[in-house]
Specification:
The complex is a heterodimer of chains A (162) and B (117). Chain A has 6 helices and 3 strands, in the order ααααβαββα. Chain A has 162 residues and is mostly helical. In chain A, a hairpin with a 4-residue loop joins β2 and β3. Classes of the chains: A mainly alpha (162), B mainly alpha (117).
Chain lengths: 162, 117
């Protein structure tokens, strides 16, 4: 019964939270309307038949989030320095990374992480060979990049999604 | 502007610092668009504006209106969430389009498609 009415409890809760934030109130009427919207929109989302995501290791998710925020902060400064220094010797290039992660949701999160971090951008992913191509603005050490992406992001994502 | 006069000096200085920092990062990002040499390098620059630039602007806005209204106001966080979720999609589309064009033109600067067996 509860599965039928609440197929995506986390999505419904998030929608309710967004609604309360936008309305800036916790009046009973607002909560009721938000809850109705959350349940109804989650049911509509179910009609799209999305592939089911299974999340594990919630604490690891929080740690990964903090690490990404820190990395974004640091690479902001690095890229800003690179732009201001105006060094024409800056070598940038493509790096091919062989992945072990195959879960669609994990890959989507990895894409968001890599692209939102200044200095690296997701270019393409080959699902047959499971090779990810990224572009790095300040490419000094190719093996180092492969290692750090695999160690810092792929390993926690593997534990969370697979 | 009369409502902003109600802002105490310490909050005004803090808000000004946040807004200036945000503007600085957005500016450096735009400068990167001008200075960097090729498309793949330039596409990195706007991420400065969408990450730390946005972060400092939102921090300024949250501080300003929370102090003015005397209660925590933080629905600006939603702007940050939506920006983080949507900008990568735009950037990836742009890069994929550029890569497709370069591969079609037979450019030697981009990695070629791995042949399928």
């Amino acid at each position: 019964m509860i599965r039928r009415w609440l197929p995506y409890p986390i999505l419904s809760a998030l929608l309710l939270a967004v609604w309360l934030l936008l309305q800036q109130s916790v009046a009973p009427g607002t909560i009721l309307l938000g809850a109705l919207l959350g349940v109804a929109l989650a049911k509509v989302f179910g009609l799209l038949r999305p592939p089911k995501a299974r999340l594990r290791h919630y604490p690891l998710l929080g740690r990964l989030f903090l690490r990404v925020v820190l990395d974004i902060f640091r690479s902001n400064l690095a890229v800003a320095r690179l732009i201001l220094r105006r060094d024409s010797r800056t070598r940038s290039g493509f790096v091919a990374i062989p992945l072990t992660l195959t879960d669609h949701h994990g890959l989507a999160v990895l894409a968001c992480i890599i692209t939102s971090t200044p200095g690296t951008i997701w270019v393409s992913y080959d699902p047959d060979a499971n090779i990810l191509l990224i572009h790095v603005l300040d490419l000094v050490d190719e093996a180092g990049w492969i290692d750090s992406i695999k160690r810092r992001y792929e390993r926690p994502l593997l534990e969370i999604f697979q | 502007m009369s409502r902003l006069d109600a802002l105490p000096p310490w909050a005004a200085i803090l808000v000004a610092a946040f807004v200036l920092l945000g503007a600085l990062f957005a500016f450096v990002g735009s400068l990167g668009l001008l200075r960097l040499e090729n498309f793949y390098q330039r596409v990195h620059a706007p991420t400065l504006g969408t990450t730390l630039g946005t972060f400092f602007m939102l921090a300024g806005s949250i501080t300003c209106f929370s102090v003015l209204h005397g209660r925590p106001i933080f629905y600006e966080i939603l702007i940050g969430v939506f920006l983080t979720l949507t900008t990568p999609i735009t950037l990836m589309l742009l890069v994929r389009a550029a890569l497709y064009r370069d591969r079609e033109e037979g450019s030697q600067d981009v990695p070629q498609l791995t042949p399928k067996d």
